Structure formats: C-alpha cells, structure tokens
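Quick question, first post here. What does this chain look like in 3D?
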Amino acid sequence: MGMGAKQALACWWVILATWAVLLPTAAVGAMQAEKFSDPNLTAKVPQSWVEQPVKHEDRYADADLVLALGQQTYPVFREFIEDYAKQNHLNIVIQPGTCGISAGKLLRKSVDLAAFCCPPARTDRFPGTRFHSLGIAPIALIVHPDNPVNSVTLEEARQIYQGSAPTWSDVKPRVPSILERPIQPVGRLHCKIRPGHWRALLPTEEKFSAKLYEVGVIPDMISQVARNPAAIGWETPLMVRHYSAKGKVKMLNIDNMDPTDTRHALAGDWPFYRTYHLVTWAHDSKTNREATKLVAYLRNKIEAIHQEIGFVPPSKLKQAGWRFLGDELVAEPGPR
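> Answer (accepted):
Ran it through. Tokens below.
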C-alpha cells in the first residue's frame, strides 16, 4: 500500500471515529428540551392593559379572593384552601381549570391567584405578576397491572413513544407472549407552549408515534391504561392514587429508579416531573396581601406534608442547589 493510500485510510479512520463519538451525542441532544423559560422575559401587552385594574367577574363581586386552579392543583389544594377560608373568615372562590385557563384569566385580570403545573412560558409572564413555586413531583410511567414489565430505561421509554419498539417483546424479549401484540402508547400532550413535563421524554409533538392515543384529562389517562394490558401512559403518583377509582395501574421504575422515591427527583436524576406554581399580582393592595398570605399558607402546608403527597418542596430544592429567582424555581442544579 502506497503512502497516499495509507494516509487516505488513516483519514477515513479518523472520520469514522469522530462519527462514533458525535452521533450518539447528537442523538442525546436531539432529545433534550427546554425545561424552564427565561424568567426575565415577559409577555408583550399594551400599556392600557398594564394600567387596567384586576376586576372579578360580576358573579364573584362579593368574593375576597378568586382563584384559578388546574387539573393537578385543584384536587390537592381545594380542601386546604376551603379550610383556610373558614379559619380566616374569607369568601374564596376556587375555579377548576388548566394552565391555559389560568393564563387566560390572568390576561383578563379576573383572578387574584392562578395555578400552573408546568414551568411558565414567556406568554404566561404578564407584567406585574409574581410566580411562587410550590415544588416538583416526579411523573411516572404507568402500565396495566398484568404487564410483567416492572422497569424500563429512559431510552426504552423513548423508543416506545417514538414507535421504534412496536411490542413489549421488542423492549423486553423475555416477557410472556400475551404482550407480543402492539404497544398502545397513551399521552396527554398538554401545555404545548410550555417547557418541561412530557417534553423531557420527547421534545416535540412530532417526535411521538402516529399510534399515540391522546387524552385530554388525567382521569382518561388512568382509565385508558387500566383497561388495556398493552398500554403505557404517564402521570404523577399522587394523581394515580387520587383517580384510582378509574382503574388500577402499575408504575414503572426508570433506569432502576422508583418514581415514588422523590430523592431521585431532588438529585436531578428523575427525567421528567411537574413543577407547581402559584401566581399573584405584585402591586400592593389589601386583596394582594391576602393572596400572598394564602400562598405562604400553602407553601408551609406542602413543607409539612410533602412526603404524603409526593412533592419535593422548595426548601429541599434550594438545599440541593436548584436555582430560584425570588420565590420562583427557574433551573435544575448545575453551573450558572
């Protein structure tokens, strides 16, 4: 072999070695999605909106506070808020909804406090609002109780939801033949404009398999998985318990980590989780002072019962190096 041929062969080996390093890295990068938005960027609104006062809907004219809670926060906090209202002789209206409904009510300036179960998008950060984080909770992968699989890797979960692992036997070759039928992935692709949550599994809606069965609400997620031995879905352990009447499901370990052990989420190792926030108005008024007191009450309540409800509270997140700006959780642990 001549010198020129040897040099050409050496070059090809360098190129192949580089590809071997870069391709897996690129694949990992392609699956990474933004988990938090920039807290310094706010929604663009006209000055007339900024000057507009907060005004309750006419039907709530006698309310001391009007709250908008979400699918996750309404079941958890409603009774606590009702108890607080009785103790403090307040007329508090609690409206169920979603993150999108919360954003809409903030835009209309019709509520004093709104809840989000996702990190806010820029369009949620209206001028004059403050975000108060209540903590995070791991999102578990759930399957039918008869499914013999108890654990998957994060990569296997992604293959399932991308459609590249069409049956459970493709994921776990030794599972019984009953699961050789096609996997039915179930997803709730809520809050598509917001970072975090399901985007840590697959970063965009387009990455999911065309066979994804989409549901709009949490009870439907539980019932769909509970009725199909080949199905897989996701939800927080707290919501799995809360909606247990909709059917029995089993939570999977991911990379040998138990979703009910919140130490994995605290360490930043659990791949996807919900973040919970309450939003108040920043300007000083009697109503906003009452809203701020309620936020403090709920944060203290979570600190006291966080193990029972599967939350990682703000105090523990701060101790573990999660980054806050004021009361708001804005980043995972890591270099600034």
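The CA atoms of residues 12 and 18 lie 10 Å apart.
The mean pLDDT is 90.
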